[in-house]
Specification:
This protein is of the alpha+beta class and 250 residues long. It has three domains: 55 residues; 43 residues; 94 residues, Ribonuclease H-like superfamily/Ribonuclease H (Nucleotidyltransferase, domain 5). The protein is built from nine helices and four strands; from the N terminus they run αααααααβαββαβ. Helix 1 packs antiparallel against helix 2, helix 2 crosses helix 3 and helix 6 packs across helix 7. The radius of gyration is 34 Å and the shape is elongated.
């Protein structure tokens, strides 16, 4: 029994599929026997017939790889919703979750996974850059801090037009939701204390910090408590008045 000197069809198709199919066509033109060609390339007669049929129907064009895309995709996101996702991404630069929330407020039901696939397909995904420095000096010495000892205090406007839609802002004002949020974050445990107010004043800022301290003391917290702020006006920071229309800084 002579050894087969021809490479198998499987080996050829992995590296050069078009060349593998052309080799089958050439071998068949020489021998005119499907079974013999199948033995030469160690494949099935069904595969040889399939290559011959595609060659007879479409010529060399039929020997190229066909698309593996399914003929029907009933669960695929519609073209209209895809256009809305792409437009919202280009307009606002928002990520997946915010785009989902905005579209749902407009009455368009879409899943976060669908938004992610659409952004990836249109090459609009957010690319995160890796930091050049793996180890950075930490601002706090967490090992030496007690829990509930050091807090970062900040103020945020709830009615933020850059993060909330117009409809959400309209409903928030209609429900008379307080527009200012006071937040104190404990740096060691990341525990948050939140309060709301209708005015952005130093009095409200002072009351929030005093309420936080009294609340902690009521549970037996006796060590020193540090509240770090950004030195804004609402936390007692100084405001410089510019010289304008006869006004002078004091």
């Amino acid at each position: 029994m002579t050894e087969n000197i021809y490479p198998t069809y499987y080996e050829l198709s992995k590296s050069a599929p078009l060349l593998a199919r052309k080799a089958i066509i050439r071998a068949y033109e020489e021998r005119r026997n499907i079974s013999e060609v199948a033995r030469m390339f160690q494949t099935t007669r069904k595969t040889v017939r399939k290559v011959l049929r595609r060659w007879k129907e479409r010529g060399e064009e039929g020997l190229k790889d066909l698309s593996r895309r399914p003929k029907r995709s009933p669960r695929r996101t519609s073209a209209v919703v895809e256009a809305l996702i792409v437009a919202e991404r280009k307009k606002t630069g928002y990520g997946r979750d915010r785009i989902v929330r905005i579209l749902q407020e407009r009455g368009v039901e879409v899943k976060p996974s669908a938004v992610r696939y659409v952004l990836r397909r249109y090459k609009l995904s957010i690319k995160y850059k890796r930091s050049r420095y793996r180890h950075r000096n930490r601002f706090y010495d967490f090992e030496s801090l007690y829990p509930l000892q050091h807090f970062q205090v900040d103020l945020k406007e709830v009615y933020d037009a850059t993060t909330l839609s117009e409809e959400t802002l309209r409903w928030a004002k209609k429900l008379n939701i307080p527009p200012y949020q006071w937040t104190a974050i404990e740096v060691k445990t990341r525990l948050r204390f939140i309060s709301y107010s209708y005015e952005k004043t130093f009095t409200n800022g002072l009351m929030f910090m005093l309420m936080l301290i009294y609340f902690l003391r009521s549970f037996g917290i006796e060590h020193q408590i540090t509240l770090q702020t950004d030195n804004g006006e609402e936390f007692g920071g100084k405001v410089r008045v510019p010289e304008q229309e006869g006004l002078c800084p004091t």
